[in-house]
């Protein structure tokens, strides 16, 4: 899936606790590795004696952090956050980590996920005369912890977890400790790493690899992990909830080199390609991946089908997020700026074009045109996930239903829209087998969410504007 | 007093409530006129339906506001703030107005002044599990209003006023109303203006002049002014406190064209010059003001003494706040960059050099040198205020005592330090007569404050770092 | 005259030659002192071994130079320039000093003035297959020196001076020498200073004062000054031309503390005020200068008339060049943002309002209104120069004739336009007496220029677009 | 080859001539597609009536051009340039196209290549009293054309070509015409395209694809192509020189989707992989390309050897050119930030690691380490080009000889340096067969250049500092 039209993921979190090592640069590098989880704001908060120092800002890690401000963040315990922000024109104030003063000193919090009862909780807090600074659901968690803190830290965290509903992977600084929490369904990923005298928590294991830390294990669904000078302790919330990790992490969001809940993402995508080849074979000459999103599945498809892979679409490496077509009417040139057809390779061939998903269908339509202009005889589109039919309430910024071709059109209609000679999606069954988890949240495909969500509500209704 | 070494004032506030007119530009222009009260951050908050929109940033009004962001602030009710911030490396978060969500919707607050019991109040709030975002005393006022809001707005304001001690001129947006409050001693100035269907409140009347509004009256000490669709209402706090406006506003802070508590500032300064001439006459040829701070007093001195005024020191108009000597060792060139001696005028003459105050003495020393290099036969320094001997706890950022020459040296010693042929300060008595108020806060000269302050505490102790 | 509507001066030049001292910061400070001569671009060029290093950019000195780029300019011989650029949308390439490579190495040139035969010279150069990079007349001087350089440096300079017509004060770096040249009429000012082992040349003596250098003398009309390791040499061009310095430098452009051709500018302006009082007395209570341009003349007027001066108009010190009214329709608020009336002073009084010139009359109209709104009983405007009736071809950017009220209206009509109770200008005779020079260029008042200019041509015709 | 340590290419040029279409955006998009040829400055020059308007600046196309400045460049004839600049601290002035005024009006020039007799030509020009603005060899070409222009345009171009030695692909605007020139050896590429009423010239055909233009043919070695209202004319220089295109374009510089002198670059690289597999087979489990540079050759190697390709190294897409390790000591983390090993894929396997070249060897050393840390049993490095042993004098910025491992070490020593289990380079013979051209410049591999270069001279000696 090209950058132009994509599902946006919400956030990445990272934390580090060291006995003797300054870890601000570890967090910086860790966030670099998690940059794909959010590119609109970034922040790092570090414990410095009795308070928390922080730097936050809009943009990429490299936009926000400089040699100077990083060196001012020196410390041994800290957290970081990358965010894709969705809430309007004053995004800067919603950048995380959130840092607050309360009666035991400071608290800082980084959150990946989405609360579905944020509005109710906000009203409860405000009725008590409390002041909220932002429209973010994440700030509510801070207030709840502060409110119940007089009962003790662990008890306050437990009460908070009891009150908030939705998805959350949290990294928290409080009392000089680093705390990691994953929601009772384990919807968003969170894992633990270790290197020498330092513990890490990270949304994905690729954040550990970059600094040479070892992946210890995932934080469990409903687990509170507390890291301090005595090491790592775990508190488990008692609950009947089933673990249901978001399956879309495997399809699109997570980096291929990450291992989430024990499964390597590249491997899962390769398996998706293999299942896709079994479910929807086609007589063709060449498997062409949409770069870079279609590459792992194209390998699996090629292995299973025996049809070779070829780079029929070449990327312009220098077209980054800053590219803007000077005029609206130039939009159609957009795909050509980013990709060119390798005519030598595709001319006269029957092509299997592989991507991980279709959202609006407009980009795929242009890619099919491009390949045909380049001389392809046939273009068969194979998508390594099922059609996205439902909104996500747990942290993924899906378009509205009427923009989702999967929700409004049959596969046949989508095929006609994109001008392909044939089109197949991976089945939900094939997807689950590829991932190999017992249970997972497949709500965006089948509407079966880990908890009840109020039907008519759009995601934005959960936040007070 | 040159820009280089000066007493810093804290803030200016401005508010507007109109029935039918968009007032965001009135606030912009009003803040322009109040820019001398704070140059480090600025902000405007405007009521837009059921929420408050705002723009805040570091720097001058012209740095923070653009045509674009001003037009996004369209509305009929709003407040603004200019600030000189004193609290450390994350100043941006302390920019005002503070805007918060609480259970009745939004609240926004702009504050000029300083609370002396901020630390105690902060602890009280945090003990209740409340979260404070900043280290600013102004945020505490927001929390108190929210905490007591369930008792009704007026009652909440009264309780809040009963709890906070110190100086405060406040402009508040709440329930769609504009509220102005001045502390029970009336330490910081605040006045009311009107033009057509719009009411204004402003730290100084020059903020009304710029938009062509008429000065109605000052907000009284201990008065709450509520402006809404039914017009202007006044609630008076019952108190035994005496009105004691800050006398330093007249000496240095306020703009000469402002009228504070019925007294025109230029006129007061002119009178200071007259009293100074009577108290400390000297046989000389020319009265030379330090531009621009010494000008009004130099006129009064000249009138009383019959000695003509001449521009012996010429300013470089293009040296603004951005000027930085490329190297530390170039500091001595600093004064020469900003001022040049008009040798034609001063050569061979006995000069009376007039300024409004002496803080560290270093600039005055260089000015005396400059005049002597320029050929002045004698340089007699006359200061139109008494020596500053005590710290201010009510909103003025005085240097520490050991930096204040007035606190550590006799007049004779200061005279030697600056190399003048003679030196006199205005007496406290002469100052009071020049101002013409029955009572005023003269704490920085005589240590007599409007309320008890804890002796050893520096101003910074009142804030939690 | 307020900043808003003004005559614009073209440039300031500065040069330094030292045996043993690094002078890049002297040039920096010297240009600071000359900043009033041009605010749109600035540059410094320094000899470093066998080449010239330079930094140029748009904006004020403080915009263009940083600690870093200044320290990269370390050297003992250099020149600098501040410019008000008039030539279209690519101003950056016209910033000076111009630096070029030619067969003897480098050459750098800074120019204040305007050539009136630029078009003819440009055609001559281009016909020889030479390439010009800019549309600036100054570049032509570089090419002529390079073209004739094979005849020897002095000869090449003499031939160049023989070919170029118009006004020019030049600072040139070539062969490791610093060269200063003033046109044969001495229209633009240029002076020589010395301090320790360093010689300086500067457009005005205030540039010498700031670095503590002594004013030695002016460069003479038609003089070439060559400064190198052997000291200062002078070559005089033989000519019948009379020295005719621009009289407008004394009226408006030069800083009051400068001494041009032996005359102190403040003193000259004071004399203008005296002559004005003699020529156009009026029965009034108060002399009010337009800040800051009317101040020196107001003193002379007051001295001669015995009527006291008072600051009836107060400036907002924080409104700088960056101020932009957010919308066109806010223009009328412009004057009020910059100036406020001191009502206490002007109420009920007959005012004499003094300024140095009137260009379009719009600002003066608003000032008269402002004073009357402030309660002034009468406002009598007195201008310390004659009406500007003719364009300048020698370096001053006058508006077109139809925008000049002096060229299109009688004094009576201007009086009605600005709403004054009376209006007088200084006579040309009074002006000349105030300045005290035998001859001067008064072309903008009487059309008598130092050389023939082609009547119908606007100044822009002399440059190839 | 990773971005970190690479051979730098010099420039890309693009031109457009249309009868009726505004082509500024075509040039913008064309330069986007050529962005890989230079990322340090960019510029576009457009004919507008009797002059040339242009925008140039440092950085990527997207840094330099905005909607606003592009729309100011409206026109039907123009050229553009992307540059990797090599000449010191004032790069902005060396940005191209160069634009100049000469006696027939304007001229603009964009140059890819390097002149080896620049110093001699510069001296000749300067001896004639001409002024050069830059240290660029490209400016010399402008001066020569201007100098000989009086003999007529075509004659002037022929004389210029006769005098300049080295490599050059030129796009020139003069007399309203678009002119393309390729040096007599055809060292740098240049091709011609057409779409509707518009002709294009471009360094690579990928610049034509992006705007939907058709590749007509390459400009021939020693050919002048003149495009004007009468269409396309060709003038051929008579010469005995052989066509010798730079072979490194095929190995590394050109985009894989381009066709240069009739050869598709991806195809050539695929063939290099095949030849490499034949020349240097190895018993292994997996072919791993260094992304993205090793991908095409890895496919050819896999096809020939039957060993599957796998993405063993995963790129962080968000690490762009702005990434800077906060401290020198963090350099070693650099590779890990950009690439991560896919352990699932490489664990326990014998790996063939493919890249297109080795320059210093430091990056390759880290990649081998990374793969071994990730569990690879063996790592066999295969490079799809011969070792680089000689400097390039014709437009490629090779490191100095002592930094080139190929020039200073044997293959065995390099193998030990990088820690590989085996290492092979493609033979020069294999390279030539893969490309399939009769003659080509292979100077960087065997020191055989298309013309004599003065032995000891470094490339920088050809430019006057």
TrEMBL record, chains A, B, C, D:
Residues that, per the record, bind [4Fe-4S] cluster: 246, 392, 441, 444
Keyword Transferase in annotation: yes
EC main group: transferase
Alphabetical UniProt keywords: 4Fe-4S, Glutamine amidotransferase, Glycosyltransferase, Iron, Iron-sulfur, Magnesium, Metal-binding, Purine biosynthesis, Transferase
CDD domains membership: GPATase_N (cd00715), PRTases_typeI (cd06223)
Binding site for Mg(2+): 293, 355-356
EC number, as in UniProt: 2.4.2.14
GO biological process terms on file: 'de novo' IMP biosynthetic process; purine nucleobase biosynthetic process
PROSITE patterns: GATASE_TYPE_2
Cofactors: Mg(2+); [4Fe-4S] cluster
Active site, UniProt feature: 11
Cofactor binding: number and manner: Binds 1 Mg(2+) ion per subunit.
Domain Glutamine amidotransferase type-2 residues, every copy: 11-230
GO MF annotations, alphabetized: 4 iron, 4 sulfur cluster binding; amidophosphoribosyltransferase activity; magnesium ion binding
InterPro entries assigned: GATase_2_dom, Ntn_hydrolases_N, PRTase-like, PRTase_dom, PurF, PurF_N
Catalytic reaction(s) noted: 5-phospho-beta-D-ribosylamine + L-glutamate + diphosphate = 5-phospho-alpha-D-ribose 1-diphosphate + L-glutamine + H2O
Pathway recorded for this protein: Purine metabolism; IMP biosynthesis via de novo pathway; N(1)-(5-phospho-D-ribosyl)glycinamide from 5-phospho-alpha-D-ribose 1-diphosphate: step 1/2
A Pfam family that the UniProt record links to this protein: GATase_6
Annotated function: Catalyzes the formation of phosphoribosylamine from phosphoribosylpyrophosphate (PRPP) and glutamine.
PANTHER family listed in its UniProt record: AMIDOPHOSPHORIBOSYLTRANSFERASE
HAMAP family: PurF
Family affiliation: In the C-terminal section; belongs to the purine/pyrimidine phosphoribosyltransferase family.
Name listed for the protein in its UniProt record: Amidophosphoribosyltransferase
Gene (UniProt): purF
């Amino acid at each position: 899936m090209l950058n132009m039209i994509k599902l946006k993921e919400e956030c990445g979190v990272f934390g580090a606790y060291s006995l003797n090592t300054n870890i601000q640069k570890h967090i910086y590098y860790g966030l670099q590795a998690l940059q794909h989880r959010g590119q609109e704001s970034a922040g790092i908060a570090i414990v410095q004696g009795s308070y928390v120092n922080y730097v936050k800002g809009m943009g990429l890690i490299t936009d926000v952090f400089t040699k100077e401000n990083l060196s001012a963040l020196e410390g041994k315990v800290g957290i970081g956050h990358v965010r894709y922000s969705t809430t309007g024109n004053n995004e800067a104030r919603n950048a995380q980590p959130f840092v607050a003063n309360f009666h035991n000193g400071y608290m800082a919090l980084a959150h990946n996920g989405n609360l579905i009862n944020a509005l109710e909780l906000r009203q409860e807090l405000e009725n008590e005369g409390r002041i909220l600074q932002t429209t973010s659901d994440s700030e509510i968690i801070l207030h709840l912890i502060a409110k119940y803190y007089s009962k003790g830290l662990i008890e306050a965290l437990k009460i908070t977890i009891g009150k908030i509903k939705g998805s959350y992977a949290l990294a928290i600084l409080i009392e000089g400790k680093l705390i990691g929490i994953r929601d009772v369904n384990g919807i968003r990923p969170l894992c633990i790493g270790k290197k020498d005298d330092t513990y890490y928590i990270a949304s994905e294991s690729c954040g550990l690899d970059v600094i040479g830390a070892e992946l210890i294990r995932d934080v469990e669904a409903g687990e509170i992990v507390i890291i301090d000078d005595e090491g790592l302790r775990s508190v488990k919330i008692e609950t009947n909830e089933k673990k249901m990790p978001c399956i879309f992490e495997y399809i699109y969001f997570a980096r291929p080199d990450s291992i989430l809940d024990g499964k390597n993402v590249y491997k899962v995508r390769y398996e998706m390609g293999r299942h896709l080849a079994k479910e929807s074979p086609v007589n063709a000459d060449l498997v062409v991946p949409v770069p870079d999103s279609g590459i792992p599945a194209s390998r699996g498809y090629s292995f299973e089908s025996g049809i070779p892979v070829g780079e029929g679409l070449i990327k312009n490496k220098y077209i980054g997020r800053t590219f803007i077509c000077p005029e609206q009417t130039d939009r159609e040139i957009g795909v050509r700026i980013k990709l060119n057809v390798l005519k030598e390779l595709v001319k006269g061939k029957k092509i299997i074009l592989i991507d991980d998903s279709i959202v609006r269908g407009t980009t795929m339509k242009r890619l099919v045109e491009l390949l045909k202009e380049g001389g392809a005889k046939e273009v068969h589109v194979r998508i390594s996930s099922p059609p996205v039919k439902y909104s996500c309430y747990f942290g993924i910024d899906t378009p509205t239903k009427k923009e989702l071709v999967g929700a409004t059109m049959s596969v046949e209609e989508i095929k006609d829209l994109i001008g392909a000679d044939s089109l197949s999606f991976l089945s939900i069954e094939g997807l689950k087998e590829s991932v190999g988890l017992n249970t997972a949240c497949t709500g965006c495909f089948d509407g079966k969410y880990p908890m009840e969500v109020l039907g008519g509500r759009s995601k934005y209704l959960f936040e007070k504007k």
